[in-house]
Amino acid sequence: MHVDFKELPLESKIWIYQSNRPFTPEEIQELEKELTQFIGQWAAHGSTLKAGYEIKYRRFIIIGLDQSLQGASGCSIDASVHFIQDLEKKYKVDLLDKMNVTFKQGEFIAYKTLIDFKKIVKNRSVSPKTIVFNNLVNTKDEYLHDWEIPLEESWHKRFL
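Structure tokens predicted for ABC transporter ATPase:
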């Protein structure tokens, strides 16, 4: 069952998929339809899942699942991964590679491979105060409070 992301409780499970490029406004409209349709029929062991999504900064797809009614099963997680893989093919983007770093440079959202990010940290092209996206958050509460954080407070700080 698709619900507005804002209605999901703070303990909802979160999955964050970052794109290697921004989506166009037209792609976002299509993505919203596809996400609404997928989440509307998403189920675990025959039971409908209560879930919602957000698209942030034209780069991130965030899916949230209220596990208080029904948790995700292996099959439902597999279905969501296959759905994301289909989006990757359709839009020619990378959404599943966790070895990349996305961060803010002013109003611009930058995307670098981990190797390139290490280099720009070493060259001091970013500072300890640079905002990075911690896509390892697990709950909506963590997403709201610990997703956009200074480099010096994130797991990325080991590169300083």
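The chain has a mean pLDDT of 94.
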